[in-house]
Amino acid sequence: MSIFPNFLRSLLLTGLLSFVAPLLLIGAGLTSFSLIALVPALQAVGRSGEDQILQFLATFGSGCPLQGFLVIGLAFGLVGALFDTYAAYQHSRWG
Questions:
Q1: pLDDT score at 72
Q2: For an engineered disulfide with 81, which of 15, 41, 67, 94 has Cβ 3.0 to 4.6 Å away?
Q3: What is the C-alpha separation between 50 and 35, in angstroms, rounded?
Q4: Is the pLDDT of residue 93 over 90?
Q5: What mean pLDDT comes out for the span 28-45?
Q6: Do the beta carbons of residue 53 and residue 43 sit within 8 Å?
């Protein structure tokens, strides 16, 4: 049996998980700042945190936070896939 289907499955799964992980982290940050903004005493902190994250995303998205969100996810997914390819190469070389 060929190792190619196993490699492709591993590569696809690694790329997908590497794409989703930073998006979940950024989403959790935005959600937490949105929840903090609901507390009247901490409203300024929550709004400031949201604005900072959206400005950070807009930096990577040429002014659009959604594009920045996707660019970061794609970059992490590509790097994850490259690391998986390297690990598979090293495993085949030594094993």
A1: 98
A2: 15
A3: 10
A4: no
A5: 97
A6: no
For residue 82, the one-letter residue type is L
Q: Tell me if 57 sits within 8 A of 69, measured CB to CB.
A: yes
- pLDDT of 95 > 90? The answer is no
Residue in this structure with the two tokens 């790329």, named with its chain if needed: 15
DSSP string across 35-74: HHHTSGGGHHHHHHHHHHHHHHHHHHTTT-HHHHHHHHHH
The answer to whether residues 23 and 69 touch, using CB atoms and an 8 Å cutoff, is yes
Q: Tell me which DSSP letter residue 9 carries.
A: H
How many Cα atoms are found within 13 Å in the side-chain-facing hemisphere of 30?
A: 15
Separation CA 72–CA 19 (nearest Å): 8
Cα 7 from Cα 85, distance rounded (Å): 8
The pTM of the full predicted model, rounded to 2 decimals, is 0.88
